[in-house]
Specification:
This protein is an alpha+beta fold. It is built from 3 helices and 5 strands, in the order E-H-H-E-H-E-E-E.
């Protein structure tokens, strides 16, 4: 029996985050690095279609109270998302070492 597949919806800030990450990698590390990081980010997020709860409940209490989840994408980047019905909403894709929770409050 086929499993349920969730829809993915990247909100505008998340799309912009990904563009900025790619620009950074192109200028700082090179095109190959940018391609690799892009593929890793997209492939990891695609897993949410089949496993929407693989990311942990966000550790920030205010974000957790709003049902935000955090998915580790690489050693550096995380996706912040919520599941609503049959859709996974990607809110941000950010450097996990920054004070990114303030972007969502």
């Amino acid at each position: 029996m086929p499993t349920k597949r969730y829809k993915l919806l990247y909100l505008a800030p998340a799309e912009q985050d990904i563009r900025e990450i790619i620009k950074f990698h192109i200028t700082q590390v090179g095109v190959q690095s940018a391609r690799g990081i892009y593929q890793t980010i997209r492939q990891t997020i695609l897993r949410l279609r089949d496993f929407p709860l693989i990311g942990q409940i966000h550790p920030d209490p205010l974000l957790a109270a709003e049902n935000y989840r955090k998915l580790v994408l690489t050693n550096t980047y995380v996706a912040v998302y919520r599941v609503n019905g049959d859709t996974v909403y990607i809110y941000r894709v950010v450097n996990g070492t920054t004070d990114y929770p303030r972007l969502l409050k």
